Amino acid sequence: MIWNEKCECMPRKELEELQLSRLKAIIHKVYDRVPFYRESFEKAGFKPSDLKSLDDLKRIPFISKKDLRENYPFKLFAEPMSNIVRIHSSSGTTGKPVVAGYTKNDIDTWAELMARSLMCAGAGPNDIIQNAYGYGLFTGGLGIHYGGERMGATVIPASGGNTKRQVMMLEDFGTTVLTCTPSYALYIGEVAKEMGIDIRKLPLRIGVFGAEPWSDNMRKELEAKLNIDAMDIYGLTEVIGPGVSMECEQKDGLHIFEDHFIAEIIDPETGEQLPYGETGELVFTSLTKEAFPVIRFRTRDITSLNPEPCKCGRTIARMRRVSGRTDDMLIIRGVNVFPSQIESVLMEIEETEPHYEIVVERKGMLDELEVRVEVNERLFSDEVRKLEAVQRKLQNEIESVLGISVKVTLVEPKTIERSEGKAKRVKDLRPKE
Amino acid sequence: MKVKQISIFLENKSGRLAQVTKVLADHNINLRALSLADTADFGILRIIVNDANKAVNILKEAGYTFGETDVVAVEVPDKPGGLASILSALWSAGLGVEYMYAFVKSSGDNAVMIFRFENTDKAIEVLKNNNFKMLTGEEVYNI
Questions:
Q1: Model confidence over A320-336: pLDDT tens digits?
Q2: What is the total count of domains within chain B?
Q3: Which residue of A has its CA nearest to B66?
Q4: Is the CB of residue A46 less than 8 Å from the CB of residue A59?
């Protein structure tokens, strides 16, 4: 089902006209009201009146995560605080957080986008949504919550953590849709198993998973272990929160709600806009946000765009599942390494549960990459040579994908930290320059 | 003629062996035989205990990764050539030994060796035909 057919299935020409008129308005607004944009436009020799077509967007300078941090907390807001009804913030683990403000209309837009997303994932007004994204400054909890209510579903504001209680609610409340990070969903499955509950027999049918990169192999594992459709949702605090794009039942890319956002792909090195289909860094411009508009925000997420109409009926473009983040990218001995590449190898070797950790260390002058994998009962053998064969197989396959040498270490079960939010898969122990 | 052996995955770092043996000791599990195979990174502790079922539950509870394997306990004449005679009988029958280790206690005048075979049933047959004495699980657990 489609929540808003008019907007999600609009002919592309009509959509582009709508985008252009909205873009003109927002460009004028930020130029008039946000000193950062005025300065950056002027430096680039760009005036709002120069914007004649969508193609002119290329002439507008980018805004980076660093720019957002430097304007902490409220300097990029385009509305007075009296019009702002809500504040969210990113976690700020790598510096000052990014603070997002919302007007009443922004909250309304966001609920609309999340209602579209949930329905795009296959949910409907009769569903019981257990929302295990964290409630608070993080956009995941409240974003999903408002969208679920807007759609008319029953929302359980479970928030993250207290996993045994999550399992209890899945069973007792008859939850049909679970929303959380994919790694937490796997953990819930594990805890249910320990509690002796067969999660596959519960009414749960859909998982809406996001807030961390995950692979198609992890989808297969989640679908098999939880007996659900595992759907990918995408969003960022800087752009609005969850509900920027969402997979439909085709599971072939995430539909971007283009009446509210313009997506571009650029070459992360040169900043050149790339044509449809090419892989590069995703850039977003918000078209309707009032309090905290972003113009050409560089997400650092790596993906590609596909503007072809989808079998589901939607005409809005799709982005491929995010394959990595330029932030998460590790440069080891000059080679770009994404944790998602390592994860997909581990998942392909069927017997391995994705409990792993990537450790990068500097030994002498050389960076060393170690992947620590928990040994489960299916991997285990009482013979040393068979265990060593497993170790070698993992090592060879990771090396062939990454193109650099790696040490695989088999470790005891439950020795790698479990996450209740975003998975911490990487330990970079190299000295910071 | 099969004896239940438990093999436990351990990381090769200090205290791991002490920890697992303590967990078993705390529940009154007595080790009848053991062998440790190790590499630089990990080890496999193979044990035969007085109560395998109980030990399995304890290990599961404590979160270890382990497996259960059938092995064979064979009495070996405690004199030069005792072991060689067993091995040559197996070799003649084309049977491979995955690994073996000595039992701590002896059975009467004889030593006891634990064998892990590729083909356990076939090996038992060959040993029987060659009149080697094997111990039953019960005998081993209570020796």
A1: 998 777 767 787 887 77
A2: 2
A3: A377
A4: yes
